[in-house]
Write a structure and sequence with these properties.
Largest interface: A-B, 48 and 47 residues
Structural class of chain A: alpha/beta
Strand content of chain A: 15-25%
Oligomer: homodimer
Number of helices of chain A: 11
Shape of chain A: globular
Largest sheet of chain A: 5 strands, mixed
Distance between the termini of chain A: 18 Å
Helix content of chain A: 40-55%
Strand order of the largest sheet of chain A: 3-2-1-4-8
Chain lengths: ~325, ~325
């Protein structure tokens, strides 16, 4: 079956064709200037049409469309209860998609799509108990248990970024305090480095308003003490959180992904170290920690494979 | 179908008949004086036979036998990799059971059986996304996601008691440090109260060598400051761990169970409070915290229902 995968971000979307042999082709990117549901729907349809045309695939030979979207999605109804990047609340996007396409459409959380993509075509191939922990500007995870996506009761599972690591600690973008994301997510990590640099060495490059997580990683490599302290703390919190996830869920493999985490090798090392130290021994003996390999394409592959699978069974 | 449920503890086992209408009858108890696999198998067969006789059920009308056992069980092979209460390592107990019974036998982790029992006959009835967090001398949990037991890659899922809550903290019975169980499990909770009482008020009833978790709960009710401090700390650690479980897995209901937790109402209150404070808001809005209702019978019901279901599908 030929399917289409769509990865719907906050500022742009990507779409591509998944062929029966597992090849992904004709990747399209569209900028989302208008986040209204109708405009986003139009952009999805446009990108999908362009991808089909470019791949030489007739619309009637597409068996299904899969879409990954950051947020809380009630899968049965296709309702997007919360879509933070688009500012959506209670948008019946699944229904809108179903009316716009002649084939079945599958709507899924973006990190669930990503972990499914890694399970089908990336570093989690053949692994039935898999977790993908991704750090970009935010922190989240996708979980597969016994070959099935873990969605939770309301499509909210995987919110590792909002597990509390310091009760009453740092303010998080979500409005709560002490979340993992408040220490590890790219935005907050850069902000913390900037604050600390301002307090200790105002001439530090890290005290500039434009500092990014990548800059913190580069400063660490150059021997910067502030960067070291911020990354140690971030890595320790993330390592402990991943260790506790492994102790609780006993995955066979944990994939580390996301541009911030993969862009800072020291952070990866520190997380691996934390997993080794803090995971309960029996579960530690069963788990491998590896790097995600599909990057941004994980969500495209995953959405397209989910569309193909229908029943959400992976390995 | 008539099935038999068996709950295999470290010092005794219980067996009972589950009738097609959901009634449990003829509950038997056998003391396990010899923990060798053959002796335990003989005791399982004996208790099962007695239960059938007492219930007036002919052996040939029993469709399946389910057994819950504390430990790490590879479900596909029936191998008990680790059975800590019995001192077992790599015991092919599933194979032994299959040879001893003419009907299918299902071997499962005891807390998985208990959460399945609560889902079928107790406080989790009809709930497809369910967690049971139980505190006895140890701390563990059973998890159901989308109507299926969460086993993990090696049958190790649910080890919430060995999630690290204080990195490098209190020694745990498992040999590691800073585990939740080291603060909340009945043995350790009593030990911590005793140590603290010895240091502050040697005449305190809590400084006796025989002190139990129940004594700590009673002392709290009588206004004892040491008991309050120990229970506050235990409740806060457990509340945070349960909150993080809810944030990560988005269950519809969390059941609190186990003799230590249910025997100390203040601990329950403190855990509820922690869940309210530390769970990410979206997941908090979807979850109910309730008390388990089947007590020791949860494992019996669960094992018998698992035997009946075969395919491990609950709600």
């Amino acid at each position: 079956m030929i399917t289409v995968g769509v990865d719907l971000g906050g500022t742009n979307l990507r779409a591509a064709i998944l062929h029966p042999d597992g090849a992904l082709s004709a990747v399209q990117r569209e900028v989302l200037s208008d986040p209204s549901p109708q405009a986003v729907l139009d952009a999805v349809v446009a990108a999908t049409s362009t991808a089909m045309r470019e791949a030489g695939v007739a619309p009637e030979s597409v068996g299904a469309v899969g879409i990954g979207l950051a947020g809380q999605i009630h899968r049965a109804s296709g309702l997007v209860a919360v879509g933070p990047n688009l500012g959506w609340r209670d948008v019946p996007f699944g229904t809108m998609l179903a009316a716009a396409f002649p084939c079945p459409v599958r709507l899924e959380n973006d990190l669930s799509a990503a972990v499914f993509g890694e399970a089908m075509a990336g570093a989690g191939r053949g692994v039935a108990h898999l977790a993908l922990v991704a750090v970009g500007s935010g922190v989240g995870c996708g979980l597969i248990e016994a070959g099935r996506l873990v969605d939770g009761a309301a499509g909210l599972a995987g919110e590792i970024g909002h597990m509390k690591v310091v009760p009453g600690g740092e303010a998080c973008g979500c409005g709560e305090q002490g979340c993992l994301e408040a220490y590890v997510g790219g935005h907050r990590l850069a902000l913390r480095a900037r604050r600390l640099a301002e307090g200790t060495d105002p001439s530090s490059p890290l005290s500039q308003a434009t500092v990014t997580a990548k800059d913190v990683g580069d400063a660490f490599e150059a021997g910067d003490a502030v960067a070291r302290r911020i990354l140690e703390e971030a890595g320790d919190h993330l390592g402990l959180a991943v260790a506790n996830l492994v102790t609780l869920l006993n995955p066979k493999r944990v994939l580390l992904g996301g541009s911030v985490l993969l862009g800072i090798p020291y952070l990866v090392d520190r997380v691996r170290d934390g997993v080794s130290r803090f995971t309960a021994r029996p579960a530690l003996g069963e788990v491998e920690v590896a790097l995600a390999t599909l990057g941004d394409d994980a969500g495209l592959y995953g959405a397209a494979y989910l569309a193909r699978s229908g029943a959400s069974s992976a390995a």
